[in-house]
Amino acid sequence: MYIAMSQFEVANDMAADVKEAFVNRPHMVDHEKGFLGMKVFTPQENENEFWVMTTWTDEISYREWYKEHMKESHQGIPKGLKLVPGSLKVRFFDLVSD
Question: What GO MF terms are annotated (predicted)?
Answer without folding.
Answer: monooxygenase activity
